[in-house]
Design brief:
This protein is mainly alpha-helical. The chain is 73% helix and 0% strand. It contains two helices and no strands. Helix 1 runs antiparallel to helix 2. The radius of gyration is 19 Å and the shape is elongated. 1% of the residues are buried. This is DUF4235 domain-containing protein. InterPro entries: DUF4235. Keywords: Membrane, Transmembrane, Transmembrane helix.
Length: 94
């Protein structure tokens, strides 16, 4: 059974959702990092001024947080897009 390719509209919407999600998640995770540690997030984790523990902790928080945000937002957006598309196809005159 052949899998349907996503339509152009979903590709554009999905791309925009991805960009906004990444930006928003980075801002939120940075805020949470600052409130939790009392320090600004490290800008350059390769810098010798940033401890190994802090660099690894930040990488783990950002990696997991960004991945979870992308999964949740992409699945929700796709579900809503598919529902909208189904309603639009069923509605007479469209």
């Amino acid at each position: 059974m052949a899998e349907d390719k996503p339509d152009i509209a979903w590709r554009v919407i999905g791309g925009l959702v991805g960009l906004v999600t990444a930006w928003g998640a980075r801002k939120i995770l940075g805020f949470v990092w600052t409130k939790t540690t009392g320090k600004e997030p490290p800008i350059d984790t390769d810098s010798p001024e940033v401890s190994m523990g802090e660099a690894i902790g930040y990488a783990v928080v950002m990696g997991v947080g960004m991945s979870v945000a992308q999964i949740v937002v992409n699945r929700t957006a796709k579900k809503r897009y598919d529902a909208w598309k189904t309603v639009k196809q069923v509605t007479p005159g469209h």
